[in-house]
């Protein structure tokens, strides 16, 4: 199982200028991917912007949105062009985890209804793929085509229709950031839908878990998860890694459940979290 690390782009108060150095150090220390996730009404960086900063300071590491919320981004051609640009800037290292987004306030400020989101996502995907195939043309030329099957696209969601979309419209599934049983049920459902669709290769499964290590780790994680998730805090906090033994156990659990990638998202903006995680992985007998 590949292990990646999240950027501190969704940690409130983080210095946006730290994204580049964080990305460079993470690549140097051997992490396989850099992740960034989306929220609109919150103290975070847009994930595409954060990953663009990371792309400028790295050469090999995969860049992943876990996930980018498409539901309230009204113009799919603009969104496709932004993703297209990041794919080119990174030299073809982008994997787009795409979802609808479930935070009601993000839809409210966008003046977009939360009904009909599934159909809207499917229409968005169709338009974006047309852009990436080079089918958007005008008097001055066209948006150039990307290489076939680029960028890699994974879909999120944990209702039956989401599993069907993941199996028929993407390369795999991005699991929720908490809940072992949710992960197991989702993996089984996506694989079942995958087989029914006649797909040959197995779906790629990415799962995220939050982490915080070092002095005061539990307290920092508590504050972060409570602020971000509110009433969902008890469900999420159980899976947040704050020590080596939990890290080892969580890696084993998600790997056994069928995950191909684990992206560990920081609860702290402190730069030392990178080295603390590398050390913890080493002590747990794992490598990035």
Distance between the termini: 9 Å
Strand content: 15-25%
Contiguous runs where pLDDT drops below 50 for at least 5 residues:
none
Q: Indicate the mean pLDDT.
A: 97
Order of helices and strands: EHEHEHEHHEEEHEHEHHHEH
Helix content: 40-55%
Radius of gyration: 18 Å
Major sheet: arrangement of strands: 1-2-3-4-7-8-9-10
- Quick one: how many beta strands? 10
The major β-sheet equals: 8 strands, parallel, barrel
Specify the overall morphology.
globular
Protein structure class = alpha/beta
Q: What is the number of helices?
A: 11
Considering the chains and any ligands shown, give keywords for the structure.
single chain; 288 residues; alpha/beta; 8-stranded parallel β-barrel; two-stranded antiparallel ribbon
Short description:
This protein is of the alpha/beta class and 288 residues long. It has eleven helices and ten strands. 46% of the residues are buried.
Q: Would you spell out the secondary-structure blueprint of this structure?
A:
Blueprint: E1 2-6, H1 19-28, E2 33-36, H2 47-56, E3 62-69, H3 76-89, E4 94-99, H4 104-110, H5 117-132, E5 137-138, E6 141-142, E7 152-156, H6 160-169, E8 172-174, H7 180-196, E9 204-211, H8 217-229, H9 233-237, H10 244-257, E10 261-266, H11 272-283
Task: Write structural notes for this entry.
β5 (137-138) and β6 (141-142) form a beta hairpin. The protein is an alpha/beta fold. The chain has helices at residues 19-28, 47-56, 76-89, 104-110, 117-132, 160-169, 180-196, 217-229, 233-237, 244-257, 272-283, and strands at 2-6, 33-36, 62-69, 94-99, 137-138, 141-142, 152-156, 172-174, 204-211, 261-266. The protein is built from eleven helices and ten strands. It is globular, with a radius of gyration of 18 Å. Helix content is 44%, strand content 17%. The model has no long low-confidence stretch (mean pLDDT 97). The relative contact order is 0.15. The strands form two sheets. An eight-stranded parallel β-barrel has the order 1-2-3-4-7-8-9-10, surrounded by seven helices. Strands 5-6 form a two-stranded antiparallel ribbon.
């Amino acid at each position: 199982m590949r292990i990646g690390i999240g950027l501190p782009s969704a940690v409130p108060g983080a210095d946006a200028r730290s994204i580049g150095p964080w990305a460079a150090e993470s690549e140097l220390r051997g992490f396989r991917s850099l992740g960034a996730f989306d929220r609109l009404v919150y103290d975070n960086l847009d994930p595409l912007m954060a990953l663009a900063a990371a792309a400028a300071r790295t050469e090999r590491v995969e860049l992943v949105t876990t996930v980018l919320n498409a539901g309230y981004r009204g113009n799919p051609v603009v969104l496709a062009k932004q993703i297209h640009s990041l794919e080119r800037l990174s030299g073809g290292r982008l994997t787009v985890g795409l979802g609808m987004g479930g935070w009601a306030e993000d839809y409210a400020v966008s003046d977009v209804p939360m009904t009909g989101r599934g159909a809207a996502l499917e229409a968005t995907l169709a338009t974006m793929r047309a852009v990436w195939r080079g089918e958007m043309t005008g008097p001055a030329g066209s948006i150039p085509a990307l290489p076939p099957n680029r960028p890699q696209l994974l879909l999120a969601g944990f209702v039956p229709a989401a599993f069907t979309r993941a199996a028929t419209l993407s390369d795999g599934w991005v699991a929720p950031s908490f809940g072992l049983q949710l992960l197991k049920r989702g993996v089984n459902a996506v694989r079942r839908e995958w087989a029914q669709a006649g797909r040959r290769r197995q779906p790629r499964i990415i799962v995220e878990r939050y982490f915080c290590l070092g002095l005061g780790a539990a307290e920092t994680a508590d504050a972060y998860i409570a602020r971000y998730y509110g009433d969902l805090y008890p469900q999420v906090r159980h899976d947040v890694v704050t020590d080596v033994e939990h890290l080892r156990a969580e890696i084993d659990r998600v790997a056994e459940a069928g995950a191909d990638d684990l992206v560990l998202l920081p609860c702290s903006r402190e730069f030392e979290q990178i080295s603390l995680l590398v050390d913890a992985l080493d002590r747990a007998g794992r490598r990035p």
